[in-house]
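Q: Focus on the chain.
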Amino acid sequence: ADELVVLLIEKANGEQWELEIEKEEWEDLGIGFGQGLMDEYKSCHNKCIFCFIDQMPPGMRDTLYFKDDDSRLSFLQGNYVTLTNMDDHDVERIVKYRLEPINISFQTMNPKLRCRMLHNRFAGEALKKVDVLYGAGIEMNGQIVLCKGINDGAELEYSIRELTKYLPHLRSVSVVPVGLSKYREGLEKLEPFTKEDAKEVLTAICSWKTAWACCASCMTSLRRRLKRRKGTRARGSCLWRRDIWRTRILSGSSGGRGRNFRARLSMFIPSAMIFSGKRLPCPAWLPRRT
């Protein structure tokens, strides 16, 4: 928005040019890039059993068949990434420049099962990057593409339980039923969810509602207290499910002030959750469970 812009350009040979550009305050800089990311888009290295792009009909435009798995697009456009296409430098850059929130396709927290679902032997190991992001306080959103008989049932319960360890920086988790088309020749056989299946999934997800019933109000108080004491950001987190399952699982009123804070917070914190003191250091005023 300035009338005078000083632009430093470094050429491939290391030579630097300093350019002074005069323009009106309302004018654009006048520089465009051939690629929106100023670089090539990173394509997906996985072969997910549920990939919707593999189920696309033939004869459509080429861009519809491109599988992206780029953390930059997660920040800019809200795309979900599997973390398998990210190296340590990518993670460090996210932390350094606070490129948040980052949207992560978890699918499952079982490393072996994740390798199977993504057809990538490094998919389980990639989950360790979440620990780095969590440790740096990077806000995240999660997603689980639910495949009948594979990552539902007990596996879904396990995944949700493990994901609670990333509160409060994991702001939401969406449980999405797999989408299937008639163009699945040569792909792993998957079954669609029936009405009865959907009810079972809802029951499993809603079982967490009791444990998390006062999460929103407690997180409001926690956010205020952490900010006062340590300058730490804390945000309320929630569990969502989308498409055929259109109910917000976590609900609660704001507030959470006063002497009832300890009691209400203690009610919703199971031992596996973040406030056990293993993932987030517990101040003395927070109740602990063993």
About this structure: Confidence is low (pLDDT under 50) at residues 230-290. Residues 10 and 16 are 4 Å apart (CA to CA). The radius of gyration is 22 Å.
